[in-house]
Each structure stands twice: as structure tokens, then as C-alpha cells.
Amino acid sequence: MKSTVVGYPYIGPNREWKKTLEAFWGEEISEQQFEAQMKEYRLANIKVQIDAKVDSITVGDFTYYDRMLDLATMFGIIPKRYKWNSDSVSLETYYAMARGNQAAPASEMTKWFNTNYHYIVPEYEGQNLKLIDNKPLRYFLEAKENFNVEIKPTIIGPATFYLLTKEVETSNKPSYLLQLTNVYSQLLSELSLAGAEWVQIEEPILATSLSSDDMRIITEIYDQLNTTKGSSKLLLQSYFESVEWYEEVINLPVAGIALDFVHGFEENISNIRNFGFPKDKVLSAGIINGRDIWITPLQQSLDLLVELESLVTPNHLWIQPSCSLMHVPVSLTLESNLPKELNDNLAFANEKLQELAILKNALKNGRDVYQEAFENNRLARELLNNSLVRQQEEVQNSIKRLSEVSLSRISEYAIRKDLQQELLQLPRFPTTTIGSFPQTAEVKRNRTQLKKGQIGKEQHDNFIKDEIERWIAYQEGLELDVLVHGEFERTDMVEYFGEKLAGFVFTANAWVVSYGSRCVKPPIIYGDVKWENPMTLDETVYAQTLTTKPVKGMLTGPITILNWSFVRDDIPRSIVAQQIALALRKEIKVLESAGIRVIQVDEPALREGLPLKAKKHDDYLNWSVDAFKLATSGVEDETQIHTHMCYCEFNDFIEPIRALDADVISIETSKSHGEIIKAFKDAKYTNSVGLGVYDIHSPRIPNIDEMVAVVNDSLEAISPEQCWINPDCGLKTRKTDETLAALERMVNTAKLLRERS
Ligand code: GLN
Ligand code: ZN
């Protein structure tokens, strides 16, 4: 019986890692100082695990930016555009791939499975792979030199790395796979020679819906590694879901297998009950949730461990968190302002390590010694569940009565469209923006000054009003058709609403890494979500008083709020989504009653919440689409509902989009060369589509020709009557002059199109 972790947060309790990294980029510290600091953090992270009595300490999960990028550079998979030709990879090249440089844009970044972490996508261009650097070995030796404990190096596995590599030409595939297996073999045999007893191989790809072909390839990879890896034992890590090919996976030639008994609980447990578990292998049971911030139900987990112990060979059960703890904040001790009933229910990475120790010892020696811990654990959950924040009668009654609420608009789209046009009198190819305008230094300063008490609320609000006034004037000058107030009062599209709704709480320090050095601090939804006061009314209505053109109300959708928060686990996520949706429904009503007749509900995170397993998609889509409809269906036919999604594969997502029944959906179309919009054609989509005709992520001012070309491409798929013209996302990161120049050309594009048709 052993405890271990898959990985531990590298950002540091006070984001020291991030600060050092950014200081290095800003040339405030030398490379030598940078390396020294990083080593200090690495060793400190090991020390925390040792102090928490973790038996097998994991190293190699520490990174200077991203672990997939680490592998690519360790193996020499460096795209030609970085002009690399040497025997080693400098930090300069490494960070050029991560962030781009003058000569070459950065590598693509995308979401790591169903988490909010983003990794750098490996690009194979036919290079010859070789093992340039053995990072796990370096970290293994470093740890051995400093600590006398069991050290288990970890590495993301060959199957995951192979299947996530971008655009390998079909003809290249076999050679790429062969080379990749070879470098992994070499890496592992070096670890064996250095004396690593166990090596952890992380294969989250096993938790996705793999084809039988993929599973065959994986089997071949592991058969080969088994003959070449040397004497180390492999612990094959699966996480984020159950493994789909259970029998194949447990029979791979490895010494141990880790299964996720949190997110893949039902399937993994029933597989192990039905098919058993190999007598000669270690089972490492992921029973502490590595994806959330809640305490582990100790008794329940202990019961599960007792059962698992009976299903494996004696001494062949290990326990661990369900995945790397990098997805949770570091330490709860830095929070001092949380309500006690909530605080007693929270466990960040360090607290999860303590739970791991308790569970291990309770399983080994009986739970008597831990009577108090178990009792407190049970009581804490009970207290919070029974507390007023979770017992909002009004909210719960509305949820119970939901079957009485229609999720459909009064009339179908064709009818609504005419009524809306009668009211709004928009030209063909109407123009609008996605919501935010530049968050200038002054806008940010206004907010921090209010926070620090340097200015009063009135002064703050007056500044916002001035900004709104300025931007309404700009928009009128530009002759945009549907205007926005500009979102100057918002830091973040989720935080803003979370702060105004009951049931949310904000931490001081609960950061998690999102990508590179960028960290986010998701709000915690811990109680019933309840609308209390209008959240967006003042700014929107104020903007509307300044113009006769329609001003669009701007809200964040229920699923985006849900997916970008830590969410209570005592009720299903679908119910929390309904609660948020009901609150938004009220807000929309309030806006409508105040005369706001165009309202946008953003859902950029709808698609990213899709479960890893294809068979779970329908369930998620049903309740998430329903939540959007619950929020938006309460309005009159004349009120026009917009939605916006960005960075999303639309090809297989048209049916959910159709089901939303938004009057207008704005999407990114500028970079996809007609690809995205084609999906709308195949699906015979009839509602309106806002074409994101230029890329707001770059300071570049787009040319009219390019934007016309985007529209022309799109007109192959949808009719001119369906088209709106807009940028592809909010403009908050742009400068004022860039924004004005780009929008002027965008409006001219629309004018040209109107003349032409
Ligand atoms: N309305 C938001 C904005 O303009 C939308 C942001 C987003 O799609 N990520 O900033
Ligand atoms: Zn967007």
C-alpha cells in the first residue's frame, strides 16, 4: 500500500513560478538566476510532498512553460520556421515556439482534454527525431541528490503525444511513430540505468473514445517499449475519465495501471468488478478529485478502497489523486476571508495531500485513529448542505416548477425575423460588435482605484458613463447599426456576473494555470444561484438614452459561467446550470422591460464542456442547450436574441447551435477560409449568422478586400438575408485607434456589399 501523486502544481503558492518566468522574459533576471530560481521551486515542491508523507514522489511534471512543448523540444520536433540547427535547444527557441518571435508565429495552443489548461500542439514536419535532452532523468538525478526518498519520474506517454501531434502526413505516420517509440525507449532505458524503480507514463488519451485502430497502435507501442525500456517498472496513468478499452488496457505489458475513480468512477468500477484486475499488476486508484476544490468524502472513499483492495493482489493497491493537482490551487492556508462553513469544505492541492495520507493510513491501520478527521469531514459537508446558502427555497421551488416553463420562443424564427425587422429597421448586412471595447490603462485604473478605496463609487461610475458616452459617439460616427455599451465596468465576463449573483464566492489566491504563465482564478459556485438585483441594466439603459439606434444588452451565458467556475458537487451540474439560467432569464426580462430589444448571451465555453466520451455528449448537450433556452426563451418575438461563440470547431456542432434557436449567432469566420461556414450550408441553417470578418487577436488593420472575401465565401453557404457583419470577438484587448480604424473598414465593407446586392 503506497500513496503517490500524478503531479503537483508548479506555479507556487504565490505564483512565484509565474513571476520568475515573466521576470526572465522581461530581462529583469539573467538566465542563470532564472535557472536557480526554478530549481529552488522544483525542490520546494518535492519537499511539500515529502512533508505530507507521500510515499512515492513524482518528478518531471515541472515545466518551464508546457509539458507537451518540453517533449517536442526534447525530441527535436521543432518546426522549420524557428530555424533551429544545433545539438541543443536554447530557452530562446523554446520560448519562440511557445510565444512566437519577430520571425515566426507561435505554435498552436489548444485545450488539454476537457480541462481549462492549454498545451502547445506538436507539429511534425518530417524531422529526424532524436533524444536531445532527457528531462525526467535530469529531474530524477537532481531529486536523488537532494532527498533520500523514493522518486518516480513522470512523462506524458507516446500514445498521447502521437495522437495529439498535428497534421502528420499520412505517408509520414509510420515513420513518425517508429521514431517516437525509439526516443521513448531510449529515454526510458536511461532512466532504468540511473536506477528509477518506477516510471510513470501519463496517457490521458486512454480516457477518450479511441478507435480500435488507435488501440491497436497503442498496444504495439507498449509491446515495443516493454522489450527496450530496461528494468524500470511502468505505471501507466489514465485520467479524466474511465478507460474505454478496459480489457486491452489492463493487459498492456506494464507493471501498474492507474485508473480514475472520480471522473470515470462508474465505468471503471463496474469493469473491475466484472472483468477483474490482473494479479501481477499494481492498481493505483485515483480517488481524490484532482479537478475540484472540495474535500473528499472520506468514508465513501475508504469503503471504495476496501473493495478495491479485495480485488487486487495483496500489497498491489496504491492510492493517488485522480489526476495531476496542477488543476487545483496550491494551498487553502492563503485564504482568510471565506465563510467558515465553506472553508471547512475546501481542499486545495496541499489539503488533498493530507487527505491522501489519512486515507492511506486508515486503510492500513483502521480508521480509529482518524475518528475525528472522519467525523469532521462528514459534519462539514452536512453543515454546508443544510446551510441557508444551499437551501434557498425560492430558487429550489422555481427549479421544481421548471416543467411549467416553456423553453421555446413564442413563434418560430421565420415569424420572429419579420417582427424584429419591423421593430429594428436594420439595413441589409447589419453591422455590430461582440461587446467589449478597449480596456485602456485608464479603464483598468478606474477599477483598481475603486477597489483600493482611492475613489468612491460615484466617481468610478461617472468615469464608466463617460466611456460609454465616448464610445456611443464613436459607434454613431462609424455608422454601426446595433451598438453596445462597451463593457468597461467588467474585468472578466464570468467574474462580473458571479459578483452580482448570490451563491458565488471569490478567493484571494486560488490561482490555477491556464496556459504558459497565464493563471486564472475561477469563482466558486457554492450555494444556490440567485438573481438579486439588475446586473447590467444601468449601463445598458444609460447607453440607450444616448442614441436612437438599438443598443445590445450583453450577458454571459449559463454554461460559460458554469464551465469557468469551480462548481458545488452536492447537486448535478445540470441543476446549477438551470439556476444560473433562471437568474439570467430574470435579467433578460428586466432589460426587455426597460426597452432593450437586442440582447446577446455569450456562450464561448459551450463546446469546451463536451465530455471526453462520445457517448456522453448527448446528455451534456441536452441539458446545456436547455439551460441556454431557459435563459433566453422568455422574451417577446420582437426581442432579438444574439449569441456568440469563439474558438470552436463548428463542423460537428451545428445541431446544438440550431437547437439554441438564437436569432443571430456570431462566430469566427476570418481564419477558417469558408470551412466553418460550410457546415452551416450542409445543415441548411436558417437563423442569422454574424460573420466574424476579421481577426481581433492581432493589431493588424484588415483590408476591405479580405473582409469582402470572407463574406463571399460565406455567401456560398448562407443567404445575404442571414448575414450580419462583425469582428470575430470582443475588442477589449485592442487599442482605441486600431479599433476605430478596423471598424471603419468593416462598416465600409458592409456598405459595399449593400451597394452590390
Ligand atoms: N462579450 C464578450 C466581449 O466582447 C465576449 C468575450 C468572448 O467571447 N470571449 O468581450
Ligand atoms: Zn469571442
TrEMBL record:
It comes from the Bacteria. It catalyses: 5-methyltetrahydropteroyltri-L-glutamate + L-homocysteine = tetrahydropteroyltri-L-glutamate + L-methionine. It is an enzyme of class 2 (transferase). Residues 3-311 form the Cobalamin-independent methionine synthase MetE N-terminal domain. Keywords: Amino-acid biosynthesis, Metal-binding, Methionine biosynthesis, Methyltransferase, Repeat, Transferase, Zinc. Its EC number is 2.1.1.14. L-methionine binds at residues 434-436, 487, 602. It holds the Pfam family Meth_synt_1. 5-methyltetrahydropteroyltri-L-glutamate binds at residues 15-18, 111, 518-519, 564, 608. Catalyzes the transfer of a methyl group from 5-methyltetrahydrofolate to homocysteine resulting in methionine formation. NCBIfam families: met_syn_B12ind (TIGR01371), PRK05222.1 (NF003556). Belongs to the vitamin-B12 independent methionine synthase family. This is 5-methyltetrahydropteroyltriglutamate--homocysteine methyltransferase. It comes from Viridibacillus soli.
